[in-house]
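Lab notes, practical 5.
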Amino acid sequence: MNFHTFELSYKLSTDDVRIIYNELYNASGQNYKPKDDCAVFNALQDYGIIIFIKKYKQEEYNHHVLYYRINPRRVLENHNYIGIFNSKNIDKLIKKFNILIKTVSPFLPEFDSCNISRIDYCSNVELNDQAVIDSYINLLKRGYFPSKYTIKKYKNEKSKRNTLSKNGITITGNNGIEVTYYNKYGQLKGKNSNVLLHLPF
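Output from the prediction step:
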C-alpha cells in the first residue's frame, strides 16, 4: 500500500489546549491562522510534519482537535518532497515521528494515541512529456463521472468566480472520497527549494 500524505487527529482537553498551544507557539517561533478557527505551527515543517489545532463550535461548548499532517517520506528522508511511502516502513516512521514530536513538547500525543483522519493513496505515472500530461488532464476534465461525484472548483480572485484547477482535476464524492489527477512537474522542478505542505482549508 502506497501513499504520500496522511493526517492524524487527537481531541484535546481544555487543559491540553492551553499547554500544547503555548509549547507549539514557542517552538515554532511564529504561528499563523488561515482561518479564525485554526492555528498552524511550523516547528517540524522541515521534517514533513505540519501541526495545527482547529476549534469546532457546538451549541453549548467548543472543542479543539490537534492534527498532524505528515509527509512520511520527508519524515524519514528529510528532503524527499514527492516520494511515495510504502507502508512496510511504518514501524520506522512511527519511531522517527515520536522522537521528532518530543523535541517540540513532551505533552504532544504520540502516533498510537491518535486517529487517522485522512490518508492520500497515490501512484506516480511517468509519461513522455508535458504535452501528453496536459492532454490527459484536459481529457479527464471533459469526461463523464457518476452522479454522486462532481468536479471540484476553486475560487479565482481575478475572475471572481469558481474555476477548475489549471494543473489537474479533483473529483469529489458525497462519500468523503476525492480522486485527484495532477501534474507533478512543478514539484519536481522545485524539489530542492523550500516546498511546504499546503493546507487547503
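Observations recorded by the TA: The chain has a mean pLDDT of 83. The chain has five helices and twelve strands.
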